[in-house]
Design a protein that fits this description.
With 180 residues, this protein is mainly alpha-helical. It is built from 6 helices and no strands. It is elongated, with a radius of gyration of 22 Å.
Length: 180
């Protein structure tokens, strides 16, 4: 059962990776367009400049979940690299429960008022010609942390599967050592 859940999360991670790839292409095209318009045609667009940081925000905020699931997140590798696979899985599970979930829950719940204030005040760019409906990008803050909470369960299950699978190998190696 846990293996099927892990496969489900792995598929979602692949889709998230494709989405982030598309956002990266859009951001690259946006920056290219903005630079060409500004330096070749001497015509810049505030909205296009703001769209750059909107797309970058999407990459960073959704990229947290992707990097967690791809095991590309930041950690102290000096210690981690020398540990057994089973110990790494246990540390990953404890780190998810002790660090990722509480912080994510804190940000997800406390940033909702920030978004609602922006929505209720009809916040727009402070610059003429800038983007409107700023609440949409701000809504990605709590949304991305709820997403991270969701993917943290997948990360936990993946590591639980690793821990369980290597438990058999660990007990087998102990039995071999006892027979010698």
């Amino acid at each position: 059962m846990l293996d099927k859940i892990e496969v489900f999360y792995d598929k979602l991670t692949k889709y998230l990776g494709v989405l982030l790839f598309i956002v990266m292409l859009l951001m690259t095209a946006n920056v290219f367009y903005d630079v060409v318009m500004r330096y070749v045609f001497s015509h810049g667009s505030i909205a296009m400049q703001e769209m750059e940081w909107h797309l970058f925000s999407i990459l960073i905020l959704l990229g947290m979940s992707y990097s967690l699931m791809e095991d590309a997140h930041v950690r102290v590798d000096i210690l981690y690299d020398s540990w057994s696979i089973r110990r790494k899985a246990w540390i990953n599970m404890m780190g998810a429960v002790v660090f990722i979930l509480p912080i994510s829950l804190l940000v997800a719940t406390n940033s909702i008022d920030f978004v609602m204030e922006s929505f209720n005040s009809h916040e727009i760019s402070g610059d003429p010609g800038g983007l409107t409906n700023r609440w949409i990008i701000k809504a990605l803050i709590p949304g991305s942390f709820w997403f991270l909470i969701f993917f943290t369960f997948g990360f936990f299950i993946k590591n639980l599967n690793i821990y369980r699978k290597h438990k058999d190998e660990h007990s087998h190696q102990k039995n071999l050592g006892a027979k010698s």
